[in-house]
Write a structure and sequence with these properties.
It is built from 12 helices and 8 strands. Helix 4 links the parallel strand 2 and strand 3.
Length: 256
């Protein structure tokens, strides 16, 4: 089965917010272009199966307005990344995206730097997962490829895990990259044996996505920065089409 492509459009909102302070950006009348909603429509036309946004506590890019309008207009599956913050959880439950993905969140990081620590928060996250499931919303946990995190995710009652591919993307050479890929493969197999659906993402681009497609057999691949970067030169629709074609090509190269 060919992985579905989730396009993260946070970086479009980052460009919009770049000309305004965080305080001013809360008034979206003063920061309106480029519009992430337009980007999501073009991404969908290019073949995106999922639109992903991250509503951070500091609102550094995506705003509540974006989530609200996307929920009303997006035709693809809408996946909301969020921290386990009660404020953001309540917003998500009100707006009802198709899926939420819990990620760790640090104020000083440029982007998400690692997986969500389910082990240390299992009781709390299990309660939150139930609240979302009762509202008809699918839950995914963005985790490192570690046995303890996979087991804790299963015990917490999530439907999906999204394996953090940052170490794979940042590997210094082919030997290290292959080592990380084997770890990801074992983690994906373990998660499936536990009855979990497997997604993957972070740092994936046009040059490194192939082995992930061929070896991991993920349900969804979530890719943002590289697609938005490519879109600057060729347009969002074309950038997404190029990634979809790569995913299809490498799906056809699978040995099993």
């Amino acid at each position: 089965m060919m992985p579905k492509l989730g396009v993260n459009i946070d970086h479009v909102a980052t460009i919009r917010q770049a000309r305004y302070s965080v305080a001013l950006a809360k008034d979206t009348r003063k920061a309106y272009e480029p519009d992430p909603v337009t980007a999501s429509i073009l991404a969908h036309l290019g073949g995106a199966d999922v639109i992903t946004i991250h509503l951070r506590e500091d609102r550094r890019h995506i705003q509540e307005r974006d989530l609200r309008v996307l929920r009303q207009t997006v035709f693809a599956k809408l996946n909301l990344e969020l921290a386990a913050s009660e404020e953001i959880i309540k917003i998500a439950l009100d707006e009802k995206p198709d899926q939420v993905t819990f990620v760790p969140e640090k104020r000083l990081e440029v982007t998400t730097e690692g997986g969500f620590d389910v082990v240390s928060q299992k009781k709390r996250i299990a309660e939150v997962i139930k609240r979302f499931n009762d509202a008809g919303i699918i839950v995914s946990l963005f985790i490192d490829a570690e046995e303890k995190q996979i087991k804790a995710s299963r015990d917490a009652g999530t439907q999906y895990v999204e394996l953090h591919t940052g170490d794979y993307a940042n590997a210094k050479d082919a030997k290290e990259r292959n080592k990380v890929l084997e770890k990801l493969k074992m983690a994906a197999s373990m998660a499936r044996n536990f009855g979990l659906m497997v997604n993957a993402g972070h740092g994936l681009n046009y040059n490194n996505v192939g082995p992930i497609v061929e070896e991991l057999h993920a349900e969804e691949l979530h890719i943002g920065h590289s697609i938005v970067s490519r879109a600057i030169f060729v347009g969002m629709k074309e950038a997404v089409q190029e990634m979809k074609e790569l995913i299809y090509k490498h799906t056809m190269l699978r040995k099993d």
